[in-house]
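Cont'd.
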Amino acid sequence: MSLQVALFFLFGIGAIASAIGTITRRNPVAAAVNLIVHFFMLAGLYLTLQAQFLAILQILVYAGAIMVLVVFVIMLLNLGNEEALREQFTLRKVLGAAIAAIFMLQLGVLFNASPSQRYLSPAAASLGTAESIGQALFTTYLFPFEAISLLLLAALVGAIILAKRKVE
Amino acid sequence: MSSLVLTLIKGAIALNVALVVAAALVYLERRISAWIQYRIGPNRVGPFGLLQPLADVLKLYTKEDIVPYNASKPFHRIAPIISIAVALSVLCVIAPASYLLLDDGTKLFIAVAPNVNVGLLFYLALSSIGVYGIVLAGWSSNNKYSLLGGLRSSAQMISYELAMGLAAVAAVMVSGSLDMNQIIASQSGGRWNIWFQPLGFLIFLVASFAETNRAPFDLPEAEPELVGGYHTEYSGMKFGLFYLAEYANMFTASAVMTTLYLGGYDMPFLPTLLGLQEGTLPRVLFELAVFVGKVSVLLFLFIWVRWTLPRFRYDQLMNLGWRVLLPLGLANIVITGAIVFFVR
Amino acid sequence: MSDVIQLGPLATLERVRKVRQEKIYKELLDRDTTVLFEDPLENDMVLNMGPQHPATHGVLRVLLRLDGETVIKCVPELGYLHRGYEKLAENCTYVEFIPHTDRLDYLAPMSNNVGIALAIENAMGIEAPPRAQWIRTLVCELARISSHLLATGATAMDVGALTVFLWTFAEREKLYDIFELICGARFTTSYTRIGGVANDIPDWVLRKIRQWADEFIGQLEDVEKILCRNRIFIDRMAGIGYCSAEKAIALGLTGPVLRASGVARDLRRDQPYLLYDQLEFDVIVENDCDCYARFMVRLREMRESIRIIYQLLDHPIEGEVKLNDPVHVTPRKYEIYTKMEELIADFMIINFGPPAPPGETYTAIESPKGELGFFIVADGTGYPWKLKIRSPSAANLQAMPHMAEGSMVADIVAIIGGIDPVMGEADK
């Protein structure tokens, strides 16, 4: 168990550090790379929870596909003047800080409320496999799953139309 | 804790094997290409030029490491590391042989990380991470050719990953598991997936060529157009790492294809004819030989194709990925699904 | 510091450099620049291809303005290999200039040698003996094959088929061996002389040439097999670099590039020189006007050249290889060493050049790249008053902006391969 705790701290600290790096880096590519590292750390945390499938999907989808696109766009646009993009201290920041504070509070309350739930039960470990997730996705949650697919399809079509403004 | 030590030992062995294989591949590629091109190839360093890779590495080590002016230095440094690290880490889920039965009755699995229930996904995930090495190298070099190479590669990888994933899904449907050992076990006795999934194998093969940036999909480093592509501005051992990563990727891609479609270390009838018991050392060695043999055939295919076919153009590559391989992969899944549903 | 430099020659250089840069950028940017830059998502980039680039066949520099990977504008920059041959020619006697022509189209030096020799002979009003003409025709066709081999191989390499390049290079190597047997040099041949050629080709060398030609057809078939039915290769070449027949004529294209646009013009047939009017051969024409057509024209022309070589080898013409004309043609060595008049003639030709009567002549041959012409203005001395070289590569390269517009970066190399410029010739 000690190894698991050590790994948890390793990944946890890594995740927090890279998350801070993501929002503090001026260079967009550096920020993106930090975010990728963050996703890896999250995947590591999932692994400590025995959720192999989720961990791999985290890497495959977020780090492997979405972030590649983000980096692609950053490189393509080559955002030169970061100074011009910097925002002033506005209402948005205040709101963001407030929401973050509330969220943290909630987490703290939740974790303190039920100390027995903090450790992994054998039943929870079996939830992370491909079989159980597939089972849940295609039986119990079939309708939400298909609805999300449809939504994503609509978003895709919209993106293509936006990108192809010069419709012949 | 002993399992941790064991894993570390196995990992170290796997890494060394991969690096030696990569070096051997460099030599083989040069010899085979020479053979195809009516040349002689390296034959000066050591017997039959066998020590040529060693000389190459020595040369690369002693070369000056040039970082271009205005390059983004940390990323320039980190990019080859990402490439080689990703290429090598895939090895841990590959099972080159089954297991060794120890005296106390426990099974010593030959794979570094056996029984990962998402082994195949792990390969797909890591091969999609490999693109960062190339993209960052292209971006950080502060060179337009490099940048174009990096952009091409990211677009290419995303496109072909999908086709590869779809082909793999169909194979997984036949095998019924994502675990590499289970996939091999399901194909035992010559019931290899390639017989049931010829189209899937073809799609996976083509996508593997694209994922490993090998000809005819070597657009990110297309030398007539982009000079060296993403590694134009790399020299010395940093370049050497990219070079090594390419061959390591080839090796892992071949190993995964062997596992997924060619039955891995399975060879029907022969072990029983030879009287090799499962779990004994001769059996493990036999399985290793079978695995290496199958991988070698695929590796030869990689090299053969590279020296025979011209290179695709960027838009043709995208067309092939999105308009041919992707629909074919989807159709393959539907057909496979229907057959699996009705047969079982 | 700046004051001193600005007064010196560096200031001039600086100004020239600046003017040139401005010219290039202006050429690149004069196309609806504002419209494109208004849109933050449209992102174009100026890519400088060459002069140090593996695919530009020497030191061609191509400036590309790209939108993504699509070429919006393409400006070829010539002149990186300019050595001033036209001016140099005015300070050389006619005899001395022949070796310089090796360095024009250095992939087919024999062809240039023959071109300049014919031009000088035309200016002087003399003609080489039949045996020399026969040899010249033979080496011209060998040079054509050598040049086309490189063109086809390099085109294949540019689209990624490296193996074909090495195959054709191996054949070229054999051709170089033959050139060495013919004249003693592999690369810079300088084989022709005014009024003939340097030396006769012995029969055993001719037998070697025939032997090579027999094997060569098989090699050519290998190249055709690996490329001409290859879907990737055809996709990469067909429809790329389109140049219609009208446009090709308007741009003054010649050679395989013109014939690939469906214009059947070949100086060997249209203005026969040497023995070409007695030989039977087809003028290869393709009507597709694209890179694939250019590639195919070159492949098929090699077969025609082999046909011509067989005809020549089957019907040898015997006789002297050099004209007996002491005023214009250097006498044989043994005659110089033994006879007074020949010694004087040799002295006069070497020191003052063979005199050409005043007048203007233009002589062109069908070199492998196209119409290679020499315009000689003679003033009665042994030096040309002006020698203008009409180099096919320079003219053919002018079609590049037209061919490249709207294609992709990867097509640029195929287009350059299709034009097959040799910068030694284009830059002179």
